[in-house]
Every structure is written in C-alpha cells, then in structure tokens.
Amino acid sequence: MPRKLAAGNWKMNGNTEALSMIDALNAAHEAAHVDILICPPAHLLAPARTHADAGPVTLGAQNCHSAAQGAHTGDISAVMLRDAGAKAVIVGHSERREAYSETDADVRAKAQATQAAGLKAIVCLGESLAQREAGDALPVIRSQLAGSVPPDSTAENLVVAYEPIWAIGTGKIPTMDQIAEVHACLRADLVKSLGPAGNDVPLLYGGSVKAANAADIFALPNVDGALVGGASLTAEDFSPIITALNQS
Ligand code: PGA
Q1: Is the pTM of this model over 0.85?
Q2: What is the pLDDT of residues 119-154, one digit of tens each?
Q3: In sequence order, what are the beta bridge partners of 162?
Q4: What pairs with residue 5 in β-bridges?
C-alpha cells in the first residue's frame, strides 16, 4: 500500500510569520498516520526547520536545478535544498513547464537530481483544457509519465501528482470518474515500468482541492493524497484536508 500524503505547495507566497501555521498543523495532527509536507518558497526552508522538527510536518521545495552545483546564477540544487531541510522536491509543476518551457526530459533530470540527493521527487503532470476536450487527456498524461519519471525510481523516492492544468487555482475539478480513470492508468503504467514498486508509489490528485471536496476525492481508488496550492496557505484551510485524508 502506498503511504498517504497531504502536500502543500505555497508557490510564491508566504513569509516567516506564516510559518506559525506549521506549529498549528503539528499540534492538530500529532497522531496522524499520513505524511504531511509543506513546500514553502526556498528562503523559508531553513527558518521552517525549527517549526517542522517539533512534529509530523516535513518540508519540501518547489523546484531544483538538475546539477548538484556550478555556474548557474540564481538557481538552487537538490543538495542545497536538502541542506536547508527539504525532504522532497516538486518537479515539473505545470506553472514551470509553461513559464520556463520545461520539457519532460528537463523534469526527469530534475527528478533524478532530487533522488540522487536522497530526496523524494514529486513529479507533476496533467493535461490542458484543450487536450481534455479533444479526448487526448490519457495519451498526454501517459506520455508525460513515461518521459518525466526516472526509470530506476522506487516507491520511497517517487510520488506522482496528477494536476489537470485547468483545475489549478480555478475552483473547477474533474468528475470523480475522470480522476479515477487517470489514476488507474497512472498506476497501471507505473507497475509496467517499475514492477511491483509501482503499486506502492503514492499518487496524488491536485487542482482546487478544498475541505469541501477532499473526502470524495480521497475515497477514489488509487488516490493516495493531494497536492494542494491555495488551500495549503493557512492551517484553517489545510487542516481539514489532512483530517479527511487521515480518515480515508
Ligand atoms: P490549487 O493549486 O490547489 O490552488 O488549485 C494546486 C497546485 O498547483 O499544486
């Protein structure tokens, strides 16, 4: 069975004051049997450590360079993020695929660098609205999976997040059948490519996950948690999502 994971992606939001929400999550979910991850902007990782160390919340980053070090002004490596306290790195988020033209090969190189640093790579993929409406969602997602996941990934160093681009930050979500269909397909392809380990890779759904829809989404087969943007910024919004996962 995959481990369950509630992951919060703060994107370019938050400040040192906002880190107190980690204390609130730690207190509220002390006995949680699901993993809880907060991915703040990179400059908050080191100060977040003192908060995270006190309880079940762990820290992750939102992006990394594919090299460990070197002449890459303004970039940050997975090794550096580990040094700052990260246990995981989100790679291939659609906002980065779009804004920085990151290809599947780029995403795979970042995932490999993340895993080589001993961290978990959270590989994101998902179709656009045009692709969904053209009936191409599954082929698009399968091709992103095949191109973005390092072939020697394990259930310990890989998480896959399905995030339809049109559901991110829009308040719209796919039907439960559509989510279940994509996740079943991801599971089957992971088992084909990774063997039995593919059964244990956590599969997250992301895109407008809120307290109001979390329980329904977590009840679906092959949904092992969520990657949450807007609703991960405060304990008030994120905590009920963690509770729903814990009860699923
Ligand atoms: P959202 O973002 O929850 O605000 O829709 C999800 C994500 O982009 O990871």
Answers
A1: yes
A2: 999 999 999 999 999 999 999 999 999 999 999 999
A3: 125, 205
A4: 35, 225
